[in-house]
Amino acid sequence: MSMIKFPTLALLVPLALAAPAWADPGLGGRMGLLQMDRDGDGAITRDEMQAGPAGMFAAADTDGDGRISRAELLAAAAQRAEAGIDRMLAQADSDGDGALSKAEIDAMQDTRRTARMNRLFDRLDADADGRLSAEELEAAQDSMREGRGHGDGRGDRRGHGFWRG
Fold first, then answer.
1. Does residue 129 lie in a domain region?
2. Sign of CA dihedral 96, 39, 73, 28
3. Domain assignment of residue 58, yes or no
4. Of 19, 75, 136, 145, which one's alpha carbon is 20 to 30 angstroms from that of 129?
């Protein structure tokens, strides 16, 4: 591998792996609503929602043997990454050239960061006065401690993936 190709791949592989998260913020590692749309019609039926993880397993088990091989996992991951990259390009490629410049990536990240901060602020501002009081901040800290596993600060360590149920 040439010296030029290796650094290029070293940059592109992490970007490709992160693309689904950039493209659909809020998934947070959990099955996203778009993934539940098994027939691709842009809407989710009750059956599709209830099928959720089982449907994802069936979709990944392309040979139908009841097991997901390494090759099937890689194929499923590549398909999700490609879809995420396409969504990211549709959202962030402001000049329409089919590529993302550093400025376009920075703008996308700034937009998302601002949106996240606004959502967080709105959740914390219980009285909607546009200011976070000491009481609101204390309530937020208490809520975060409770949400991280019984107030011990260790969090929920159940792992990742649709197969854990």
1. yes
2. positive
3. yes
4. 145
Number of domains in the chain: 2
Helix (H) or strand (E) holding 136: helix 134-147
Is 93 in contact with 99 (CB distance < 8 Å)? yes
| Residue ranges making up the domain that contains 126 | 99-152
Other CB atoms within 10 A of residue 79 CB: 12
Q: Are residues 127 and 82 in the same domain?
A: no
φ, ψ at 27 (rounded to 5°): -70, -35
For residue range 2-33, list pLDDT tens digits in order: 554 544 444 444 444 444 443 444 444 444 66
Do 68 and 112 belong together in one domain? Answer: no
Please give the Cα distance from 165 to 162 (Å, whole number).
6
Are 135 and 103 within one domain? Answer: yes
62 pLDDT band (50/70/90 cuts)? very high
> Which tens digit of pLDDT belongs to each residue from 124-138?
999 999 999 999 999
Q: Which residues contact 140 (CB under 8 A, 6 or more apart)?
A: 123, 124
Phi-psi region of 43 (alpha: psi -120 to 50; beta: other; left: phi over 0): beta
